[in-house]
Each structure stands twice: as structure tokens, then as C-alpha cells.
Model the fold of this input.
Amino acid sequence: MNASLKISKFGNSAGVILPKEILAKLRAGVGDTLHVTETPDGIRITAGDPAFAEKMALAEQIMREDRDILRVLAK
Done:
């Protein structure tokens, strides 16, 4: 999907209006928080928090590696 968004003035700020198709792809809506990350190719906008995703990936790795220890602790 390619889209061109126009920057509009909102009071003393500037912003863009996201079309419903983009919101649907982000699985986001009014009141949700979007996360902006700088990448080598430009800017990335996601609905999910990249820092949280990294922490969850690390937690899953630890759980896989220490499965036996966690099983004993769960008893």
C-alpha cells in the first residue's frame, strides 16, 4: 500500500489524518497509541511497542532455554 498524507495544522501543532485503511492495517483506532521508530530506511509507525516486543522475545528465549528449571519451580 502506498499513500500520500498531507500535513495539516491543528492549533499550534501539525499532524496527519490516517485513512481508515491504514488504521485497519495497523489494527489501531481512536485513542490508541502509535509508536514511531527511526530505521535506516526512514520512519516506522507501529501500533505495538517495539521495546515490549523485544522484551517478550527475550523472555521466550529464556523460557525455552530454562524449561526444566521453570518446571521444577512451578511445582
